[in-house]
Write a structure and sequence with these properties.
It comes from Streptomyces prasinus. The chain has 1 helix and 15 strands. It is mostly beta strands and about 200 residues long.
Length: about 200
Amino acid sequence: MPRGRYSLHDPHDHTPLAEEHFQCAPGPSGWRYVSRRTAPSGDHLGSVDLALDELGRPIRLELHAASWQVRGAALDGVTWVRTDPTGTHATEGNVRAHAFTGSSPAFLVATARLLRLTPSAPATRVRLVAFTDPVLAPLTVDQSWTLVEREAHATDNGPLIVDEYQVTALDTGEQRTVHLSGDVVLAAPGIELEELESPPSVLD
């Protein structure tokens, strides 16, 4: 069960945004990731709880940020309920999309898990609903994912398989490179892995 800490920063000017303390693990039904976020000042910012089924589909998502809350799941595409800080107004949403995304590294692992690409596979298009910081506003985005390279790196615990993905935002053409090993993000724009207490889990 990997536990660790990511630092999140603005990918353009490298301004520190948050730290995300996480743990994740495969289970009988798929994979689960839970985390809490703190500001550079140490203040609590929010939390992420994401569970996937064996096919990589989100069976439960719960996000908290700035007193906003989102609960969602894969249902007729993806469906969610977003609640305001007062708890008096809840807005339902549904989009014909494949899954969710957001600023948490969990969503990069989840999308890779959903697509299950191979290095020889062509670029694959995926539609996602992103919940944007800081108020978890929903935004539908289209991305293209390509598994560029898969490398094995020797470690004391055996080979570490690292996948390099190229992710393209289809509305802007912006490209970014994401390095994953199992269920851990090793590096991505705006994301750095600062601590890892145990090796990544190998996902089937």
